[in-house]
Task: structure prediction
Amino acid sequence: MAILKKSAFLSFNLSSEIFAITVTKVLEVLEIQPVTKVPQTPEYIRGVINFRGDILPVIDTRRKFNMESVADTPKTVIIVLDLVIFNKKLIVGIIADSVKDVIEISPTDVKEVPSLGSRYNSDFLEGMIKTDSGFIMILNIEKVFTADDVSLVENSTESDKD
Result:
């Protein structure tokens, strides 16, 4: 009999919805801070910040997921992610309304995502977990970003180095 191992996920809020990302992708959670806008980038790229002496592109996750934008609050955070997308290492920040918890998820608790014509691309989701208060959507964070996003982010960090 195979024993299915639980994995740790960081859960966070966007609007009234809860998402989760595997903690192996999370480098750090930062308080919201001023972000320098980069000209001629899509609306969902909020801009860049200084992260340990490097330029960190910051994605407005609400915009990326076609959600209504809201003003930042004291609970707004930037989740710094270490990703590999299209064989390229990418460190990027995503904005969340707030962080909830680190949760342990068993693979047997994860349900398939129904195709309901969701407002964001259901390819972004690995699955869903039913909780007492609703659902937690598990993100496949690498699928959130396209090849165009990767080159935009790379270009925004390169142009700021000049």
